[in-house]
Design brief:
about 55 residues, alpha+beta, four-stranded antiparallel β-sheet, 1 helix, 4 strands, Helix-turn-helix domain-containing protein
């Protein structure tokens, strides 16, 4: 079991490090009322953190 988990850790190490080094998405605005607005292909989408929902009207 420990050998299997060690192999998994080494396999995913590179992916994990790349996530830590990634740049944040540049088209994000945070409003004063707590909303997060993300622009995707010229459409503004609202992210609701409490529901884990990205709503694009």
């Amino acid at each position: 079991f420990n050998l299997w988990e060690t192999g998994n850790a080494l396999y995913y190490k590179h992916d994990f490090e790349q996530v830590l080094k990634a740049k944040a998405y540049p088209e994000i605005k945070r409003s004063d009322d707590g909303k997060t607005i993300v622009t995707i292909n010229n459409h503004e989408c609202i992210y609701h953190k409490d529901q884990l929902l990205l709503q694009c009207p």
